[in-house]
Amino acid sequence: MADAASRLRSLAEQVLGTPLPVRVRAWDGSEAGPPDAPALVFHNRRALRRLLFKPGELGLARAWVSGDLDIDGDLYTALEAVAGLVWERGDDARTLAQAVRDPAVRAAARDLLKLAGPPLPPAPPREEIRRPRRRLHTRRTDRRAVSHHYDVGNDFYEIVLGPSMVYSCAYWEDGGTLESAQRDKLGLVCAKLGLKEGQRLLDVGCGWGSMAIHAAREHGVRVVGVTLSQEQAAHARKRVADEGLTDRVEIRVQDYRDVVDGPFDAVSSIGMAEHVGAARYLEYASRLYALLKPGGRLLNHQIARRPERDETAYEVDRFIDSYVFPDGELAPLGTTVTQLERAGFEVRDVEALREHYARTLRRWVVNLEADWDRAVRLAGFGRARVWRLYMAASALAFERNRIGVNQVLAVRTPESGASGLPPRPRTWHG
């Protein structure tokens, strides 16, 4: 069909009930839409079939990951432009199955299907995880989910994260580098935990060992770091040996639920609790409470979502669950604090770092794009595209206040009531 772009754009606007805020470039080379706007590039009809079969976030993700759909122009501008059509409407809003009752719109939807052509539907990209939604967050399913996300390859993560190898929100100052911001974040965590020489620290979800190494080297503590990722553990152990810290740092491939050699003076959990799941969160908090000495501190660094008016209607992010963090769940900050308190903790400080995570993610995207060809060789075309979309979209989600990230400092306060915290705890920022 000649001028497929104009036809596609016109029909899509009829179905959606709103003008498209982007240009459209179709498989026949035709274009339609605002000349200064970023373009959605439909390399083939299959891209349209993917969007029609799964309207909303999942269809967009499948078309992007497979390479059937691309963006010509600034990625962030394009994602902001389509946010109102995808993320802010929800996957079920105005789908072809329930669209509108207007016969003209139903006719437009039928014409879109004709324009897409057979066959329908296309198979999902091989990077998509499909599994039954039964018995989430067992030890076996958690190992599988962690392996999917973290065992992509240490060399790939070195491209994205840089030398710090810290896969969580940095703590920025104006003019700082990613490495200095990550070092400052680790220092902030250690200050909040009040680490002193000779103490024992449990680092839950220790990643590539950065927190464990920093705490042992800078504060003289003995650290047990646990992860479910074999690749992370191997990399972390090598870094520990290279730093000459094998007498102070032990890295284990172990579920936190299986740690039995407490008590510890402090526990750090940085970017791990998102994997725990709502049904297991009280168990998680109670287990960490039991592993602490009286007076011991927990620093829980965790992404939070905004609460729903009806929490029973909450659904996990389809793209994130299918391609990035299988079985991951975000909770509102208030829910997290409540569960920590139910486990026995006294919550003493909450610090929001939302803008810091947006800046961190944008820096990671810069790193990935700067070494794109090597990243594709290491992780594969589809997986590299998953990470680029996930990090860019997440940066915008933090900037738009759709999600946040918080450091919660909690204490296993002894019966005497002496928390051990300084009278002005925020002096750790000095």
Automatic annotation (TrEMBL):
Pfam families registered for this protein in UniProt: CMAS
Keyword tags: Lipid metabolism, Methyltransferase, S-adenosyl-L-methionine, Transferase
Domain of life: Bacteria
The Polyketide synthase-like methyltransferase domain, residue ranges: 156-394
A GO biological process held by the record: methylation
Signal peptide: none
Keyword Membrane: no
Gene3D superfamilies the UniProt entry points to: Vaccinia Virus protein VP39
InterPro entries noted in UniProt: CFA/CMAS, CMAS, MeTfrase_dom, SAM-dependent_MTases_sf
Single GO term (MF): methyltransferase activity
Family: Belongs to the CFA/CMAS family.
Official protein name in the record: Class I SAM-dependent methyltransferase
